[in-house]
Amino acid sequence: MNELTLVKKAIKGNRECLEELLVLHGDQLYRTAYLYVRNCEDALDVVQETSYKAFLSIGQLKNEKYFLTWLTKILINCSYDVLKKSKKELPLSNMIELTTDEREKREENLDLLEAINRLNEKHKNAIILFYFQDLSISEVAKVMKIPENTVKTFLSRGKARLKKLLGGMNYNGEKITSKSI
């Protein structure tokens, strides 16, 4: 059964179809939630809360083509709710010892996540939705409720800021340094 058919049946009240859709998009939802909350357990909580809210309000979805956009919007709101509720630190005892290669890769990933989280909200949302959620410019515009050209501007400015934060190279191959860090 194709995705649009599943969405149509879910809107009409078929909970099994909605469950199948949530399973189908589960990995993508988890990755996006993790980008926002930066914690495995909280990301799982966000996905669970998103699923719950989707079950409650699937009947309100007007256009089945925008199911994933609608679901992503719920996920973002749930992520912000979790972030507001939990301002906690990870205990040192939970840290595991890594090999040098694993440590370098993890540090790069953490650097990227930290840099993304240092962006202002509109640039952060645009970057996450476009690059990590793989939404098109028009879908990002619908989720964020802004014009498509504004999304393009947010992506461009967000990428430029990330390049500065991460110490990227300019066109001449010279190292870019940021004075704001």
From TrEMBL:
Domain of life: Bacteria
SUPFAM superfamilies linked to this entry: Sigma2 domain of RNA polymerase sigma factors (SSF88946), Sigma3 and sigma4 domains of RNA polymerase sigma factors (SSF88659)
Residue ranges of every copy of the RNA polymerase sigma-70 region domain listed in the record: 25-88
Domain RNA polymerase sigma factor 70 region 4 type: 111-162
Keyword Translocase: no
GO BP: any one term: DNA-templated transcription initiation
GO molecular function: DNA binding; sigma factor activity
InterPro entries registered for this protein in UniProt: RNA_pol_sigma-70-like, RNA_pol_sigma-70_dom, RNA_pol_sigma-V, RNA_pol_sigma70_r2, RNA_pol_sigma70_r4_t2, RNA_pol_sigma_r2, RNA_pol_sigma_r3/r4-like, WH-like_DNA-bd_sf
Key words, A-Z: Sigma factor, Transcription, Transcription regulation
Family of this protein: Belongs to the sigma-70 factor family. ECF subfamily.
Protein name: RNA polymerase sigma factor SigV
Organism for this UniProt entry: Virgibacillus dokdonensis
